Structure formats: C-alpha cells, structure tokens
Amino acid sequence: MLQDLNQQYGPDTVTLVSWLLDAAARSGSILTASVQVTGNETREDAKFLVFQVDTGIIFNTRTVDQNGRLTALWDKILAKAFTHLETLRVPADGVAVNLLYHYKSFPETDDLSEQVDEPGLIEEAKFYFRTDPLRAYLQKELSPQTLLARSQVLINDTPTILTLPEGAVHTDTSDTSRGADQS
Fold this sequence. Notes:
Elements: H1 2-9, H2 11-25, E1 34-43, E2 46-60, H3 66-82, E3 94-104, E4 121-130, H4 131-138, H5 144-149, E5 152-155, E6 158-160
Parallel strand pairs: 2-3
Antiparallel strand pairs: 1-2, 3-4, 4-5, 5-6
C-alpha cells in the first residue's frame, strides 16, 4: 500500500500518512485509528489531495465543546504530524485532512473504555490547506493561527472558524502578521 502511494502521489504523501497515523494513535484514541488517501477533491477551483483519518477518539461533550474538539484535533494530530515535515510536495494545490471522531455526553468519572460499544455520534472535521501557506507554516514562517486563517475548516460540511487558545499558538515562528489574520 505505501509503495503504491509513493508511486501515485510521491514520498511526502507516504510520510504524511505515517505521521498522521502515529499522531492519531497517540492522541488518546480508544477506538481503532486509521489513515488512507482517498484521492483528489476539487474545492473552489483548487485540487486537494485528501487524507481520511479515523482518529478513534471519543470526546465527552460535558467537558469539551466543538471548538475544544477542533483545538484538540489540531494540537494532538495535525500539528504533531506537521512537526515531522519540512516541506510538502504533493501532486495537487493542497491537502485536505478529514478527521472523523465520536462525541457524546457521559459522566467524567466513567472510564473511557466503557464507551467503546456505544461511542456516540460521528463528527467530521475537514481541514483544507493550500500548498503555499502550509509550506510557510512548515518552514516556521507562519503561526498556526495564521495558517488556519488562510485555510478552510468545516464541521460536517459546515464552514467554521477555529480560533486556537493563546497557549496553543506556538511562538517559535517569525510570523509578524498574527494579529491581522485572526479575524
């Protein structure tokens, strides 16, 4: 499978698949985590190479709201996977990462493993990253928030804006446009 991905989409695709799977498996997933490349998707006159990530995560809606879920997915999966890349070359105008996860309300005292048989509703967060802003982020020229402002984020196909908490914004970049792009 990885050899086929390498031949069809290039070595950076294989690298990103590997690091997305690693990050998803370490993200607190209780269910099986998996990653696959599903091909290309055209959105607003741009072609995106689509990575489908079943995170295996079950979020508790009593403690984590929608923005919190998106922030956790950014911090625990996307940002972690991206830290292993210096650049990204794919045969497309960008990459789309579709993250599937479950969410439901349950007592905080419950062990998460008790939720496996009935993990709750499925939600899909889609992140569309165009190549140039993503490369700038990978080269530490853009902050995470600026990258997100220049990308599209959808929850169940509804556009949304992800605003990272101040602590989640890594400050090891030379990006000086942070304030202007955080609208």
